[in-house]
Fold each of these.
Amino acid sequence: MERRKILLIDDSEITLEMERSVLEARGYDVRATSTLVEFERVLAEFQPNLILTDIHMPEVQGTDICRTLKNEYNTQDIPIVLFSSLNDEELEKLAEASGADGFLSKAHGLEALGEKVDELVESIIW
């Protein structure tokens, strides 16, 4: 069975490595990127089943990435989850406004990341 592919985008390299480690331990094939240029390259090559993006980044907002991808024919069907330290209420509003398929608060901690992604994967994607 093919492993599910997740593309992470976050401006913090340390956070990316911790997130990647958690998700790979759960059996996902994960690529992580911290820049917009790298994200675009990896997106084209990797063809993820899910994109998990931080919201507040120096180059671009995760909500803008979401809006752009949801308006592109070749990426509109990739589920996108906003991942931020904002509270659930704020995240839900941003997810709805940007067309994201879900949201996940970093406030729940890395321990909850794998479990929450599993739940989102089951309810949104596969």
Amino acid sequence: MKIIGLTGGIGNGKSFVAKVAEKHFPILHINTDEIARMQMQKGGKSFIKVVEEFSHLSDKLLNTDGEINRQELSRLVMADRGLLDRLDEITHPAVIEEINDIIEKEKASGRFKAVLIETALIYEAGIDSICDEVWYVYAPEGTRRRRLMTERGYTQETIDSFFMNQNPVEFFLSRADRTVPNGFDVTEKDMLEILSGYLMITE
């Protein structure tokens, strides 16, 4: 079962590519953001460690229901690179462990011919080490900005801050095995044709 890492910066459209692949091919789609979010909820693998590490920095870290205030946590780590690195040290290994557990379970089931791991921090988290291939979803900057403004309501200033904190296009192009073009006018049919050429799935 081939393991494919799907990566790219914010606004490149990773989720769109993953949804098309999942819909039309025998592929298991794993979203690392969803795993990390679940693991930081009460009872999750990362919850206690995150609370122990960051609760002394803000009295707003926990919501009234006892769950982690993700916006407050994001504010803390975005303002301090050392705190971000510490958060990554807590969350990344737990995410990889769960990815491996899911893959082993699905290998035994025989339901899928490939796994597609959707993740922005594929290299930083070391997820590329468990992948057979890494695909970079690419969109021009203007397209990314338009998506983020129309779909998420972000201001140009907010988008600028995201772009400044993410790796440049050249970083991904120099490391990825394949590039998946995903410009503004790419339709599901277009993406299906692209992925059909990339996904040589056999028994």
Amino acid sequence: MNKTTKIFLTLIVTLFFTVNISQAKEIKTSVTDGKGIWINIWNYPSNPDSYCKYMKSKGIDTIYLQVFRSNTPAIYSREKLDKVLLAAHKNGIKVVGWGYVFLKNPIEDAKKYLVAINYKSKDGESLDGMAADIEEVTNPKVIDTFARYVRSHVKNDYPMIAITFSPMFKRADPKKYAWKTIANNFDIIAPMTYWHALKDKQSQKGAYDFTAETVSRIKEYTGKSDIKIHIIGDGQKTSSSEIVGFLKAANDHKVNAGVSLYPMHVPKKHQIDTLAEFKMN
């Protein structure tokens, strides 16, 4: 091999790796990727270490932990939060906090939200992300005020996560619910996909159809076909069959920011096992 050929091959190899590294940098993972379980402020695990070990053994890598409501302190229980953060991180589990923001006073809610974002436990642990549960006041101006205030106080790449209604319900009609404002201010939309509230959806097919339509309508109502969606499944007395339908729809319709279940108080074994067996695309 002569010198010219060697130089040419070196250039080709260098170009190949440069292009692939560049492409790799463009692939951004989401803090909500993977599989998760939701916990509200009344149902923190009594033994966080045991709880987290069990979840990890089932392939669940994220806990969505409520840390406040608008009518509570910014950190509802520091002692309990510290224990969960330490146990989760020790077991390789992310903790995404969430706050139920009434948005009657969006700036005050935003300040509480920022306290949670910046919280450090006595062990130096912090939340891996924060989500805002938007259910009470849903007017575009108020949502925009809240989101802009938070965004102005965090780094540009901090993930903004909005918990929303499923657009399958009337309360989420785009004439009333600010889908485009939410999509313009938040990086990830996490719809509460609670099919079990409707009797005609309490089956594998019903859960599948409800979930598929939820994803489709979010893309339509936001005007963003590539929007990041983390889909929250119904754990309110739902059967394994229903959860299979939900998860299959999430896969088939290319949900791109993870899946999770919101249980009734604590998740049932069959619900965890069904989620554990789910293989994500």
